[in-house]
Amino acid sequence: MARLLSVVARLLAVLALPLLFTGTAVRFLFTWPPLYEYALTRYQIADRTGIAPDDLQRASQALIAYFANDDPTVNLMVTQRGVVRPLFSEREVLHLVDVKALVRLFVRLQELALVALVLLAGLALWRARGAALPAIGAVLGWGSALTLALLAALAVLALVDFDQLFLQFHLLSFRANDYWLLDPRQHNLIALFPPPFWFDATLLLALVIGLQALIAAVVGWQVRRLAVVPPPRPATPAERPLA
């Protein structure tokens, strides 16, 4: 029974690592100002939308704050082609509510995964002390390998047909409504973050997740290597005690 519980604990830890890496990456990127700045400059959003650059900067800051705080909605007035108007329509505001809920889900999964990993590692060390280090190192290695394998599958799907992948993601994530169906000619949200940006953002997300996995794999390898204690060498004649 104890061995079965040990196997289950290791399996849970391995599965928790991809959740930890993904949640960390999502949490980071949605509140990382350079990513928003990249979208504004790379896709010339000011010229395409007619929104003043200063207003676009305020919009970026407002969205970053929105994903980090507990405000239920985000509302902002901007000057667009000489007319002062709300940046987002009611439909866009409602979609942002859904997006924030999804981001919060990833954040909660990240936190739960971290707590689970700490508890499992602490329990293993408490029960077996140093003897648990090889198992901890193996979990880090297998969890990292699983993460990289999932990223490889995602990369293949993205390269084959990113638009279809993006569509299926929305159909799965926002099943309760169709607020995510936006027209760039009418809705600023899709104009601020056009489809090509999301391809770039997906690559960056995969990069951040993959980097975490590689770091964890190296740490796991080091833990396993340090846990291997070399057998004591036999004493030389000079070192043997005199009878």
Give structural notes.
This protein has 243 residues and is mainly alpha-helical. The chain has one domain (2-49, 101-227). The protein has helices spanning 2-29, 33-42, 45-49, 53-68, 90-128, 133-173, 188-192, 195-227; strands at residues 77-80, 83-86. The protein has a two-stranded antiparallel sheet. It is elongated, with a radius of gyration of 25 Å.
TL;DR of this structure?
By secondary structure, this protein is mainly alpha-helical. Helix content is 73%, strand content 3%.
Over the alpha carbons, how many angstroms does the gyration radius reach? 25 Å
Taking the alpha carbons of the first and last residues, their distance comes to 50 Å
Strand fraction equals under 5%
Number of strands: 2
Tally of separate domains: 1
Q: Please, what is the average pLDDT? A: 92
Largest sheet: 2 strands, antiparallel
Q: How would you classify the quaternary structure?
A: single chain
Helix-strand category: mainly alpha
| Helical amount | over 70%
Element-by-element helix/strand order: HHHHEEHHHH
Number of helices: 8
Strands across the major sheet, in which order?
A: 1-2
Indicate the overall shape. Answer: elongated
Unreliable stretches, pLDDT < 50, 5 or more residues?
A: none
Main attributes of the structure:
mainly alpha; 73% helix; 3% strand; two-stranded antiparallel sheet; elongated; 243 residues
Q: In terms of topology, how is this protein built?
A:
Elements: H1 2-29, H2 33-42, H3 45-49, H4 53-68, E1 77-80, E2 83-86, H5 90-128, H6 133-173, H7 188-192, H8 195-227
Helix pairs in contact: 1-5, 1-6, 1-8, 2-4, 6-8
